[in-house]
Amino acid sequence: MKVLLIDPPFYRLIGFYNRYFPLGLVSVGTVLRKAGHEVVVYDADINDNACAMDYTRLPEHYRRYLASFQEENHPVWQEVRRTIQQYRPDVVGISIWTTYAASAFHVAGISKSVNPACPVIMGGPHATVKAEEVLSICPDVDYVVRGEGEATAVELVQAIADCRRDLNPQSAIHNLQVEAIPGLSFRADGVIKHNPARERIRNLDELPVPDRRLLKNEAIYSSEDMGLVMTGRGCPFSCAFCVTETRQVRYRSIEHVLAEVRAVQAAYGTTQFSFKDDSFTVNKKRVAEFCAALMRENLRIGWECNTRVDLVNEQMLRDMKQAGCNSIKVGIESGSEAELARMNKGITLEQARRAAALLRKVGTHWTGYFLMGTPGESLKDIYRTLDFMYEIRPDFASIGVYEPFPGTAMFEEGLRRGLVKLDMSGQDFLEMLPNDYYKADARRQVDTIDPAVFASLQAEMKRRFHAYNKGVGRLLKRAKSRAGLYWTQPALLWADFRKYLSWAGKME
C-alpha cells in the first residue's frame, strides 16, 4: 500500500519558523514501512522562507491563517493538492493538534476531492481526546486513531489492504471489518463507534528508530532540525492545563537512544540534539547513567531538554553540563502560590527560586516558561508572575496566554465557570481564531478581569517580557551556549542570526 502521512501547514501559512520534523508521523511511518508498505511523510508546515519568530505575537497573525482557507489558489494549498495528486496514495494519514485542527480538516477535504475512494485517517493529540467530534464535524475523515498510533496504524492499513484485494477499491472503504482494532474510532451504519483503548507500548525498544529518510523534503531540514529525539513517553504529573495520555513513564534503553543519536549524526552531521521528553529528569538514576554513557561514547554533542524545578539538583546539573547539555527549559508558570495550586502544578515558588539559583551557579542556559489568563486568575496574580520573572532571572523568559485544550482539568474548570463550551462545529474551526477555540465568548479570557483590562495587560506582559529578553547579557549567554555548534557548523550561526533579527525587529 502507498501511504502518505501529512503534517498540515500552520506556521508556514503565517510566515513563522517551524523547528524540527514531525516526529510522531515519522515514527508511525517507520513501523508502516517495516510492515511492508510504501511510505512518504509530507511535512506541509516546513518553511524554508520564514520571516517571523516572536511566538508571543503569533495570535496577531491568525487572521492570515483563517484567510488562507478562502484562497483557492493559495500556493501552500496548491502544493498540498499537487503532492497528493502526484503521489496517488492508497491511504492518507493526517496529524491533528487542537491549534491547527482547521488545517487538518482542510487537508482531509483536499484529499477527498482528489480521490474520494482514498481512506483518510486522522491521529494525534486532538484526535485522541475529541474523536467523536472529529468524526461528527468532518465527513472527509474515515478513521480516527486514538493514543499511540504505531500499532493501530499498522493494523488498520493492513485491514484496508486486505479489503482492497477482495473488493472493488471504490467500495472497500465501506466494507472494512475494523471492530477488532483497539484504539480506533470510525463510522458504521451511520453511527460513530469507538473501539476499546489500546494498551500502551510497554517496551519502547520494540519500536524502530524513526527513519527521517521518509520525509518528502528531507534536504530542507537543518542538521539541528533532525536532532529531535524522544527518550521516553508519559508524564507522572497532573498539571491542570496539560493533556497527558498516561501518567506512567516508559523509557527507551539508553543504548537504543544512543543508536539513534549515532545514526542521525552519521546521516546529517547533527551535533545539537533536543531530547523532548515531557520531563527529562524524572528518573535521576537514569539521567546519571545517560550522561555517563554520552561521555563514555565520546559522542561530543550538545543537547537540550525539558524539566521541572523540583526535579533538579546541583550534581545532576553538573553531570548534564559535562555530558553536553547546553540548554534546559523549565515550566515556572506563575509567581502566585494560589495560581500554582489552581494549576495543580505541584511546585512552590521556593523550589523555583532554588532551581533558578542552581542553574545560574552551574552556568547552564535556561528558559523559564510562564503562563497567564487561566480561569480564576486575578490581576494581582499576573503582576506577581511578572515580578517573579524579574526575581529569578531566567536566561530567556517566555510568556504564553492560556488556551482551553479539551481533555485537561482546566478545560473542565472553564466549563464550570462558563468560560468554555464543550464542542465546536466545523464552521467554528474555520471562523474562530485558534487561540479562541472552545471559548464560550472569544472576548472573555477570564471571569475575574474585565476583557478590556485583560487585553491591555496581555499587551503589557508581552512587551515587558520581550524587553527583558533583549538584554545584551542574556543574548550573549545564549550565543555562548551554542558556541560548540557554531564551531562545527558555521552555517547555523548565520541561521540563528537571521532568526534573531526577525525576532528582535518585530517588537519595540
Structure, described:
By secondary structure, the chain is α/β, with parallel strands linked by helices. It folds into two domains: 2-194, Response regulator (Rossmann fold); 225-402 and 445-504, Alpha-Beta Horseshoe (pyruvate-formate lyase- activating enzyme). Helices cover 43% and strands 14% of the residues. Strand 6 and strand 7 (191-194) form a beta hairpin. Helix 1 (23-34) packs across helix 7, helix 10 packs parallel to helix 11 (314-322) and helix 11 packs parallel to helix 13. The longest helix is centred in the last third of the chain and has 19 residues, at 451-469.
Strand residue content: 5-15%
Distance between the termini: 53 Å
Anisotropy-based shape: globular
The structural class is alpha/beta
Q: Kindly state the number of beta strands.
A: 15
Largest sheet: 7 strands, mixed
> Which sequence of strands runs across the widest sheet?
2-1-3-4-5-6-7
What average pLDDT do the residues reach? Answer: 92
CATH architecture verdict of the largest domain: Alpha-Beta Horseshoe
Helix content estimate: 40-55%
CATH homologous superfamily name of the largest domain? tm_1862 like domain
How many distinct helices? 20
CATH topology term of the largest domain:
pyruvate-formate lyase- activating enzyme
Counted up, domains total 2
Quaternary: single chain
- At the first level of CATH, the class of the largest domain is Alpha Beta
Low-confidence stretches: none
The radius of gyration over CA amounts to 23 Å
